[in-house]
Specification:
- This protein has a seven-stranded parallel β-sheet, with helices on both faces.
- The chain is of the alpha/beta class.
- It has a single domain, classed as NAD(P)-binding Rossmann-like Domain (Rossmann fold, 3-Layer(aba) Sandwich), CATH 3.40.50.
- Helix 1 runs parallel beside helix 2.
- Strand 1, helix 1 and strand 2 form a beta-alpha-beta unit.
- It binds nicotinamide-adenine-dinucleotide.
- The site of nicotinamide-adenine-dinucleotide (NAD) has 28 residues, from helix 1.
Length: about 250
């Protein structure tokens, strides 16, 4: 198994890509801590993993709150003894604000998508040091590399912040054997994207921008995240793994 003996904390693990990653990690032998604001959905993922013979623990985590991060990292250690992998996956699209450039929209998007990644990284680093190293995987977006005619500009800014934050963490903690990489999914079929993909016109507009001509599946991102979490990527740090059907290649 590719994650045998590892303990992984996944933020936003209650649904969407985070839930698929939690289940895949458990299948590959990891003990998984699922952190999310959605308690019912998070407990459901925990139950499903346990029913399949895996080990999982849900913790209530709002990624914008430093004290919640301390509790989530403590839960990894108290339940499973250590922390080896952090997936900073929780995020919001900000679609409810349209292209409204209010500071309220900017602050809310930056707080979850960028500050949340900073706080998670800060909380996990000491435990990873104690464990002799670790892997941090920050879920950015293709929208953290290019702009867009439809996405909230603060979403691009937040995901761009994650992209370069990742590189400095990679450089500054390489000596501690802690790797840090970013993942850049294109349009993926998850609850976050329902509002867009449920509208046939919007779905076609997005689909037409993908050279591969289709929306991606959460599993197609999860396998990339699994690679970065595993020892197979032992010499990979500060890298960007783009999983977008060719969106930014054009
Ligand atoms: P999703 O909405 O299905 O899942 C996101 C999860 O994050 C949810 O469980 C939600 O409750 C959680 N979350 C939101 N705010 C939180 C907070 N403050 N604290 C803790 N948890 C919180 O979305 P998804 O598509 O699975 O997105 C996962 C990640 O992938 C996000 O960072 C998103 O920006 C990114 N992404 C998504 C797409 C896409 O097309 N779906 C594309 C590129 C990047």
């Amino acid at each position: 198994m590719r994650l045998e003996g590892k303990v992984a904390l996944i933020s936003g693990g209650a649904r969407g890509m985070g839930a698929v990653e939690a289940k895949l990690f458990a299948e590959e032998g990891a003990k998984v801590v699922i952190g999310d604001i959605l308690e019912e959905e998070g407990r459901k993922v925990e139950t499903e993993i346990r029913a399949a013979g895996g080990e999982a623990q849900f913790v209530k985590l709002d990624v914008t709150r430093e004290e919640d991060w301390s509790r989530a990292v403590e839960a990894s250690v108290s339940h499973f003894g250590k922390l080896n992998v952090l997936v900073n996956n929780a995020g919001i699209s900000g679609s409810q604000w349209g292209n409204d450039l209010t500071q309220e929209a900017w602050d809310a998007i930056m707080e979850v998508n960028a500050t949340g990644v900073y706080l998670g990284t800060k909380a996990a680093l000491p435990e990873m040091r104690k464990a002799g190293g670790g892997s941090i995987i920050n879920i950015s977006s293709q929208m953290g590399i290019v702009g867009s005619d439809a996405t909230h500009p603060a979403y691009n800014a937040s995901k761009g912040a994650v992209r370069t934050f990742t590189k400095s963490i990679a450089i500054q903690y390489a000596k501690d054997n802690i790797r840090c990489n970013s993942v850049h999914p294109g349009p993926i079929d998850t609850p976050m994207a329902d509002a867009i993909f449920d509208d046939p016109q919007k779905l076609e507009s997005v689909r037409s921008k993908v050279p591969m001509g289709r929306i991606g599946k959460p599993e197609e991102v999860a396998t990339g995240v699994l690679y970065l979490a595993s020892n197979e990527s032992s010499y990979v740090t500060g890298a960007e793994l783009v999983i977008d059907g060719g969106w930014i290649a054009q």
